[in-house]
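Lab notebook, design round three. We kept the backbone fixed and only want residue identities now. Task for the bench partner: fill in a sequence for the structure below.
Input structure tokens:
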């Protein structure tokens, strides 16, 4: 509805009154000194956190000879992007990127859904064997059978050389389930669920209509955990996909490329360079630059995703850690 002339005059008078009575807060000398120290400390801390990424980046776009000599520290020199272009020539690189993206998206989505539902179930007192199953989940966080039993188990389940090996083992994440359980108990009033039960809502309806929408902060938090873990995962590809190179992850493919470059560097050191092309020799010569470039390629996607999830992450991790 449109405001009347009198209402507009009243609002104007209120604003003028507020301006007349606003008192400037005067800071004491001690407060000023504290603020200066506080801002200085956090500025230095921020610089320490950001500088390693900046250092990697400027070394990947600077002249390779200068990088090899350790002359690039703060300002890039001889800027070029050949190192990133050279990575595009890696065999099956785009296939590996697709595999990594697929496992990250599918694995994270299934893990978030399972963690949310199981975390909700263990908050329900009427769940059969609730204490036992919850303790069983917690125990799996501290005891690990080791790589060989793990590999034998995956082999007997038929998950070797199969894309499902990236997804199935990561669906149940005990730590994330604990975070969700704690968040639900701390942030969602039990009265909401009780009122829904009185209205005849089933557990699935309560979970889908109440728990899931109100748990976005903690779900975003565990989504970050899951996505980072899936994106950086390397061991499962290295051990389980030995006969399926088409299923190599990006990290595995870049690891092979880095190893090849390191072996060529060793041959060059031994003076055995016959039959090796000039471009390959150049790559071997710039082993340090290749390491930096590979590090940037694997880090950039997570750095791009994190800012969009940060506001949920901070709230979720704080509320999810209030009590166990």
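Proposed sequence:
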């Amino acid at each position: 509805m449109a405001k009347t002339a009198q209402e507009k005059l009243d609002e104007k008078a209120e604003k003028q009154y507020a301006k007349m009575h606003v008192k400037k807060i005067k800071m004491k000398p001690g407060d000023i000194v504290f603020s200066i120290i506080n801002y200085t400390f956090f500025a230095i801390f921020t610089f320490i956190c950001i500088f390693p990424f900046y250092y990697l980046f400027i070394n990947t776009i600077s002249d390779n000879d200068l990088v090899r000599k350790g002359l690039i520290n703060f300002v890039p020199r001889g800027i070029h992007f050949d190192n990133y272009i050279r990575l595009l020539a890696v065999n099956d690189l785009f296939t590996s990127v697709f595999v990594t993206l697929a496992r990250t998206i599918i694995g994270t989505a299934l893990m978030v859904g399972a963690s949310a539902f199981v975390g909700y179930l263990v908050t329900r007192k009427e769940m059969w064997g609730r204490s036992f199953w919850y303790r069983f989940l917690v125990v799996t966080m501290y005891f690990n059978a080791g790589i060989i039993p793990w590999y034998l188990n995956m082999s007997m389940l038929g998950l070797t050389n199969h894309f499902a090996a990236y997804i199935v083992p990561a669906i149940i994440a005990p730590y994330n389930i604990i975070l969700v359980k704690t968040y639900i108990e701390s942030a969602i009033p039990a009265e909401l669920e009780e009122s829904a039960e009185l209205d005849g809502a089933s557990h699935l309806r309560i979970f889908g209509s109440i728990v899931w929408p109100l748990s976005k902060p903690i779900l975003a938090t565990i989504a970050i955990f899951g996505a980072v873990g899936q994106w950086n995962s390397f061991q499962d590809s290295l051990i389980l996909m030995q006969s399926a190179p088409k299923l190599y992850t990006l990290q595995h493919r870049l690891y092979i490329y880095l190893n090849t470059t390191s072996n060529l560097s060793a041959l060059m050191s031994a003076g055995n360079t016959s039959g090796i092309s000039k471009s390959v020799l150049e790559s071997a010569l710039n082993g340090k630059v290749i390491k930096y470039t590979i590090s940037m390629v694997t880090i950039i996607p997570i750095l791009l995703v994190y800012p969009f999830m940060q506001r949920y992450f901070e709230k979720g991790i704080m509320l999810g850690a209030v009590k166990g």
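Keep this in mind before ordering anything: The two ends are 50 Å apart (CA to CA).
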